[in-house]
Amino acid sequence: MNAFRAIVLTAVMAAATLASPIASAHASLKSATPAAGATVDASAREVTLTFNEKIEPAFSNITVTDSQGKNMAMDKARVDAANPAILRLTLPALAAGTYAVHWAVAGHDGHRRKGDYQFTVK
Questions:
Q1: What integer pLDDT is reported at residue 43 of this predicted model?
Q2: In the chain, how many domains are there?
Q3: Which of 42, 28, 33, 40 is nearest to 113 (CA)?
Q4: What's the predicted TM-score (pTM) here?
Q5: How does 33-71 read in b/e, with b if 16+ C-beta sit within 10 Å?
Q6: Which terminus of the chain, N or C, has less C-beta within 10 A?
Q7: Distance between CA 87 and CA 115 in Å, rounded?
Q8: 87, β-bridge pairs
Q9: How many CB atoms are closer than 10 A to CB 29?
Q10: Could you tell me if residue 32 is inside a domain?
Q11: Is 90 exceeded by the pLDDT of residue 25?
Q12: DSSP of 21-54, one letter per residue?
């Protein structure tokens, strides 16, 4: 009976170990344009965020604010039709200054992730 218990316990532990990466997988930011901390010569006309998995459009957004906290975008962010792991936000012409990008997304697992960074326009 002890051998049977050992086999069952080993199988349960192996299943839990294999399932843990799946349970902890959340949408993570892989890249951003403009990049965090970047200084761009010309005004950025779009923020593009690429994640490690497709994101849910209804629960994902980007806002860009100036140094006074004013929202710079007129439209809502949209998930790229060709690649649902990319979230885009069209921007008007930006004056010289520092801007903050704030994002929140939900991956296929339903968990929301948030982040922010800054870039500068010369």
A1: 75
A2: 1
A3: 28
A4: 0.79
A5: ebeeeeeeeeebeebbbebeebbbeeebbbbbbeeeeee
A6: N
A7: 13
A8: 49, 79
A9: 16
A10: yes
A11: no
A12: HHHH----EEEEESPTT-EESS---EEEEEESS-
